[in-house]
Design a protein that fits this description.
Length: 402
């Protein structure tokens, strides 16, 4: 049982709380261990005794319980599980999660956790469609919270519409799929470039761009989350290193290319870095002085194109080479030409015109262009783009294996 996956199930107050018993039963049938937190509202609909009997474990409810804290501190409770599942999730708990409140054991565990969180909302249709709930939903999604449901149908309150808790079987399938997803890229190696590059003018000055590295870092994390052995070659950013990813920090395009070549062989390469097109032909060894001669004139020379270099045919070429195309106009036309020019397999084209808010922002609108397809993805967060891309990469390699 030690390798069994563990779910911390948070049951919040709602008429659908009784369905959590069925969720627990079916999770346990699939060998998934379940421990429960029951909110004060949840306890109005289902008893700790029934949750405890079905889960085969103690049920936690009090934030300030001396006995509970002595046995299992709330921080450990939130980290002991592989997944936190909130089912049913009321409008209230979604709002508290969005705000980062920690005013009971459930929200404290949700705030303290370092594990993925899945939410199965359940509420009246008006509460679900209310702009406040929809805004909360959007922020939680952008933070990477996973959602299952709600479904559309008759409600206990007599109304009809979206807001019904997803069926226990759907919730359990989503949990199972989540646990399986961790191994879809197992055995494959991934190389990702991210961030800007800094091209030295002298030891203290450099030419750079405004790339944040958010998209590249999220891609490295998403590939690692699917089990790929991932190397991230990152230019200077203020982002933390992704988890379970080998990170090589570089400054210039030349260093980035060398680190990439050093990381081969790789099955997939994703070039998301905003590599400077030019470098200073002869960077000064000493700091340039503000002399009488006036401002220095800098002669620029082209940087290596890392994407094109990785996509060159050869024994070391990754089987799937993916680049980005940031365009301000004629996005698809320009990106299609770029795919051919660079020799890569896929291009993710995004609109970075001033009005799109993509550069440095949290969202991206992507078109995936390959030799035989051109798809437009809905506008989504950079984390979601990363998850979608990792998913597509997994499907690509699975179809090759089949
Ligand atoms: O040519 P352009 O900069 O528009 O191409 C963008 C794509 O090429 C991105 O995937 C970027 O990471 C990659 N690139 C690169 N090395 C360069 C320039 C761009 O890898 N020197």
């Amino acid at each position: 049982m030690s390798n069994a996956k563990r779910v911390l199930l948070i049951v919040s107050g709602g008429i659908a709380a009784y369905k959590s018993l069925e969720v627990i039963r079916r999770l346990r049938e699939r060998g998934i261990a379940v421990r429960c937190i029951l909110t004060a509202g949840g306890a109005q609909f289902v008893t700790p005794l029934s949750l405890s009997a079905i889960s085969g474990d103690k049920v936690y409810g009090e934030l300030f319980s001396l006995t509970d804290e002595a046995e299992m501190g709330h921080i450990q409770l939130s980290r002991d599980a592989d997944l936190l599942l909130v089912a049913p999730a009321t409008a209230d708990i979604l709002a508290r999660m969005t705000q980062g409140l920690a005013n009971d054991l459930a929200t404290t565990a949700l705030l303290a956790t370092d594990k993925p969180v899945m939410v199965a909302p359940s509420m009246n249709v008006r509460m679900w469609t209310h702009p406040a709930t929809q805004a909360n939903l959007a922020s939680l999604k952008a933070r990477g919270t996973l959602f299952v449901g709600p479904n559309e149908g008759d409600m206990a309150c007599g109304e009809y519409g979206p807001g019904r808790l997803a069926e226990p079987e759907e919730i359990v399938t989503a949990v199972e799929r989540f646990f399986q997803s961790g191994s879809r890229l197992e055995g494959l190696r991934a190389l990702v470039t991210s961030g800007p590059t800094h091209e030295a003018i002298d030891p203290v000055r450099y030419i750079a761009n405004r790339s944040s590295g958010k998209q590249g870092h999220a891609i490295a994390q998403a590939l690692a989350d699917l089990g790929a052995d991932t190397t991230l070659v990152s230019g200077p950013t203020s982002l933390p290193d992704p988890e379970r990813v080998r990170v090589k920090h570089v400054r210039s395009a030349e260093e980035m290319l060398a680190a990439c070549l050093d990381s081969l062989p790789s099955d997939v390469a994703v070039c998301a870095a905003a590599v400077a097109d030019w470098k200073v032909a002869a960077a000064a060894n000493q700091k340039l002085k503000k002399g009488d001669e006036g401002p220095p004139s800098l002669t620029l020379t082209a940087n290596p194109d890392i994407l094109a270099r990785l996509a060159e045919p050869g024994a070391q070429r990754p089987r799937l080479v993916i680049g980005f195309a940031a365009e301000t106009e004629k996005v698809i036309e320009h990106a299609t030409a770029k795919r051919q020019r660079k020799g890569c397999d896929w291009i993710l084209a995004n609109d970075v015109s001033a009005e799109s808010g993509t550069f440095g922002g949290d969202d991206n609108s992507i078109h995936l262009i390959s030799a035989d397809a051109n798809e437009s993805w809905p506008r989504m967060s950079k984390r979601q783009v990363a998850a979608c891309l990792a998913e597509r990469v997994a499907t690509h390699f699975e179809s090759r294996r089949a």
